[in-house]
Prior knowledge:
Elements: E1 9-12, H1 16-27, E2 32-36, H2 39-45, E3 51-54, H3 60-65, E4 73-76, H4 82-94, E5 100-103, H5 107-116, E6 120-122, H6 124-137, E7 142-147, E8 150-155, H7 171-175, E9 177-183, E10 190-192, E11 204-209, H8 211-219
Parallel strand pairs: 1-2, 1-4, 2-3, 4-5, 5-6
Antiparallel strand pairs: 7-8, 8-11, 9-10, 9-11
Helix pairs in contact: 4-5
The chain binds adenosine-5'-diphosphate.
The site of adenosine-5'-diphosphate has 20 residues, from α1 and β2.
Amino acid sequence: KPAARHGAVAVIGLGRFGGSLARELVKHGVEVIGIDISEEVVSEHAEVLTYVSRGDATDETVLRQIGIEEVDRVVIAVGSDLEASILITSRILKLGNQHIWAKAITEPHAEILHQLGVKNVVSPENDMGRRLAHLIKGHISDFLPIDEDFVLARTTPPVRVADVPLASLGLRTEYGVTIVAFKRDGGGSWDIADRDVTLYANDEILIAGTPRNVETFSELDK
Ligand code: ADP
């Protein structure tokens, strides 16, 4: 049994998502305890992680053996097996660890995890799909959803907002967006967009607002 120390993270399911997350955490200096049902997957990770155990995480004994109650956070990265994901989640909650991040594959799956009491449900495939759709459309070069109804996007200023000070534009009233920061002429560093800043066509901007308002604003004059 590993000494589950303060600050440790348990990653359950070391597939493509869980595996890369676990490796990344190790790079950040975090102690990572991994579990996977497959011997092959376990041996792939044995060298890299702090401790790896082969076992079925739906089994309470297996979870107890790695000291699941004592780790700081648990990531349930088993996604494609819905039953396993639900069982593992409910066992861990029952064992008293509430600090769960769980991966969901579908919308109903996410809903069930929320109902069980998981606060942090992530849907990497879904989120990446939504993000890529914005990038592929072309007017937005980076897109970061903060919440269901709030996003940040990187784009260029519409012609109609260029060459005049931001304060005179009434962007919030007119378009429901805020220009948070700007980068001058394709180079240099980002600056906070104060009210007295004037943007030019070759600048880049970072805007915040609802997904709909941000999309509409990014497509203006383009
Ligand atoms: P990904 O798409 O990220 O690879 P999957 O859900 O397909 O995600 O894979 C999850 C991993 O979880 C696999 O490596 C699989 O062996 C492991 N796994 C599946 N069921 C269990 C279980 N009951 N206990 C522990 N690990 C499991």
